Amino acid sequence: MKEKIEDIKQGTVTSPQGFLAGAVEAAIKYKGRLDLGLLYSEAPALSAAVFTRSKIKAAPIILSMKNNEKGRARAVVVNSGCANACTGDRGLRDAAEMSALAAKKLGIRADQVMVASTGVIGNVMPMDRIQKGIGKIELLKDGGHKLARAIMTTDTRPKEIAVRVMEQNGHYTIGGIAKGAGMIHPDMATLLSFLTTDARINREFLAKALKAAVEDSFNMLTIDGDTSTNDMVSIMANGQADNDLITAENGRMFREALRSICRYLACCIAADGEGATRLIEVCIESAKSKSQARKVARLIAASALVKSAVHGNDPNWGRVVAVLGRSGADMDEKVLDVYLQGEQVMRAGSPLPFEKNKLSRRMKADQVTIRVCLNIGAGSAVAWGCDLSQEYVTINSDYTT
Amino acid sequence: MKEKIEDIKQGTVTSPQGFLAGAVEAAIKYKGRLDLGLLYSEAPALSAAVFTRSKIKAAPIILSMKNNEKGRARAVVVNSGCANACTGDRGLRDAAEMSALAAKKLGIRADQVMVASTGVIGNVMPMDRIQKGIGKIELLKDGGHKLARAIMTTDTRPKEIAVRVMEQNGHYTIGGIAKGAGMIHPDMATLLSFLTTDARINREFLAKALKAAVEDSFNMLTIDGDTSTNDMVSIMANGQADNDLITAENGRMFREALRSICRYLACCIAADGEGATRLIEVCIESAKSKSQARKVARLIAASALVKSAVHGNDPNWGRVVAVLGRSGADMDEKVLDVYLQGEQVMRAGSPLPFEKNKLSRRMKADQVTIRVCLNIGAGSAVAWGCDLSQEYVTINSDYTT
Fold this sequence. Notes:
In chain A, strands 1-7-8-9-10-4 form a 6-stranded mixed beta sheet, sandwiched between helices. Chain A has a 6-stranded mixed beta sheet with strand order 14-13-12-15-11-16. The first copy, chain A, has 2 domains: 4-271, L-amino peptidase D-ALA esterase/amidase, CATH 3.60.70.12; 279-396, Ubiquitin-like (UB roll), CATH 3.10.20.340. In chain A, a hairpin with a 2-residue loop joins β12 and β13 (343-347). The relative contact order of chain A is 0.14. Helix content of chain A is 31%, strand content 26%. Chain A is globular and about 65 Å long. By secondary structure, chain A is of the alpha+beta class. Chains A and B meet through α8, α9, β14, α10 and α11 of A and α8, α9, β14, α10 and α11 of B.
């Protein structure tokens, strides 16, 4: 049998069998936009999730971490417009009430509901509107599209995908939605992603596969290693497909498909960064170790100077090297190679001549790729970011007022 | 006797006795601007310096580190417009030739000349123009002002100061000049500072005092802990004053004066960051340790979101807390206090109500102060940065082309 992973046209988080979703306008912060939604598995499901590493965690994160421990969540309730972060005990009670309200509506246990919020830090949740809103949500088979819109904040477009995996173990579907992230994950730019699959799968393997996929995708989004108080990525697997049980032993294709979904959503987030006009991909090769490669890749993708240069189509590769130098990674300047948009600009530590205007024109693309070969080891990594535009500053200099 | 430190009106790096300086237009990158200069002590001098921690060091840094080992430098030759970084063996030869040309002009040994460069990375030094330029430099008693201009790159104004110290040990003068630093130290925003004093001082103490002063000033300039390939701060002490020899035992006033000079120059650099419209001061108090306080202070001052909010007079303190959370520093959210421009906005981890418009108006000042009390220890630190403006992006998106 030929193994393949196929994109589903207009695929979304409700593409896998047995998942429903819906969203409403609850006027949490602004009127006239979807800002409250539910994702639900009709059958009991296994679940896994990863959360922000920030020491200051929003109330819904604290609750969801607890609910995640059992690995049996089958619903997510999520809102935008209010992060419910830095809100003390009241915030914890509000998050618990959100899960209880959703659970009651769905007829499941409250500890099977994950709660996620994104928006301004320090505001308390308008629970009256949340309660009314949850009551009004209509769960639909194609509700993923609405849910993808409801979690948007400064995102300019929804981010959703689903793939059909056809492999030795059988056929199954994985879907997902996500929201950004400005250039940097800020208060209003929490990274949220909700993934679903109808695959039959071992629970520990599901958790491991999610963690690995997130490491190579969302965690490689630029952004000075930034992380918000509310970041969360979760997956539910309801076993409605008829594939053979997927485990660590036979899970290669699942791992690959999940990673490709997460990478796709991560690239969507980067390309839709606040004020962004293009995606930046930073490939680090032959570093001393994978962890060093990861660190360097993220630092370069996060550099305001590199981002500004890309915005202006300026092939100013010295800025890449400057970040490299301060990264703390092991390196030998004498063997460094640097490529910009496929053109080598530095070889063995010395600058190569290139036509500045020509390369500048080639940088006027939707994606700009920066590649650095350190030539001292076997560590490699890819990170994604976006350019830094005047528009970014405009968006972020007048947000709460 | 009353001890005091007095500002000298129009003070500069040549205010201390026995120092001369000069600068010329050498057309290294642009015509019609000062870009090559010399600083010289007529008498033999002790010296100390600190350098970039980047693993990729420009040729002049490599040379100056060597010349600094003996602690006997009595001249600095410096240019703007070309960083002489990533220029391989040729760069090292060019830096050595710069020191030799300056030494010949001054009649001193080449290893007593420190070399500093700032400008675009990856370009080789136009040595013919350097040679002609050095020949034309006229050394003057008030030449510090010209030198302060010659080291400017994207700086909009020169940064210079001198103070007269009157203390138990006698009277002496310390002077200094510096250049920025955009928001982030980039290729064209190397941090350079040259300090002079006529004090009689012990050499080891001079080196220690410089290091300590730099730690609490230039090293607390924002900017994601960024450092360029060319950063350098040096001091020369020629002992022409008649004070009693300053040592670790009696050096309190010298240490204080040197630190205040470095802090003044650091604040000038921050306030003159690329596109900056105001200075941001971040005070961290009662952290677990001084090193944690330093780290948090710098991260907050470097956050693009905090900087954007300050630019827009947006009292969005949640962004400060978000940085805090991801900083890795020890903290207990339940005892956190946060102040913005003197107004408390968070107490014991919970938001305090405040008049948004009123606080926003108070943020329209030359300086915005952010204060965080972690209330878990005795570590404190202050960091400086500047707001992030649309103009920053404009400056940095079109630099080499």
